[in-house]
Each structure stands twice: as structure tokens, then as C-alpha cells.
């Protein structure tokens, strides 16, 4: 999975198409990620000792990684990512659009 926690992504499919957000968590086993303020779901919370106030809570639901693209700030657009091995043997992610090293 090319997308990691902390990356900024743009949604390319679904009801939230066009929205940008930061990846809060990534689950490589299921190929799903949770993006900030994307795919919001309503959860009905019952009052408990932890949560004194019950009611409806809006929470991010997981979205499939194929529905997002890495957002390149320099290109100001979504871009695919490729893997590249540097001369020192380090494996890094590279933007396909600009060719710049991501990390």
C-alpha cells in the first residue's frame, strides 16, 4: 500500500469526490484508510461513564485506498506514487507526475 499515515490525499471517487484530507490511520490488511473529514458516518452513542453525553456522533469511516490519490502540494494535484531504490540502497516513494522523492 503506497499511502501512509500522515499523508495528504485527495478523494477521486465516491460521495466525497474532490475533498482533501490527512490520513489518520491506515490498515494494509484490508487496504482501507481513514481520512480526516471524509466519509463521515453517524453513530448513535448511548450515555455511559466514559461518555456522559449521549447522542449522535459524527465519525470518519474507512475508505478504500483505490479511491484516493496522494496530493502533491508542488503540483497542486493528485499523483500516483512509485517506488525507487536510491544509490545507497534506501527504498523511497517517488511522485510519478513530478519525479520528486516523497520520503
TrEMBL record:
Gene3D superfamilies: 2.30.30.30. CDD domains: KOW_RPL26. Pfam families: KOW, ribosomal_L24. SMART domains: KOW. Keywords: Ribonucleoprotein, Ribosomal protein, RNA-binding, rRNA-binding. It comes from the Bacteria. The keyword NAD does not apply. The keyword Lipid metabolism does not apply. GO terms for cellular component: ribosome. Residues 2-29 form the KOW domain. One of the proteins that surrounds the polypeptide exit tunnel on the outside of the subunit. One of two assembly initiator proteins, it binds directly to the 5'-end of the 23S rRNA, where it nucleates assembly of the 50S subunit. Belongs to the universal ribosomal protein uL24 family. Part of the 50S ribosomal subunit. This is Large ribosomal subunit protein uL24. The lineage of its organism: Bacteria, Bacillati, Bacillota, Clostridia, Eubacteriales. The gene is rplX.
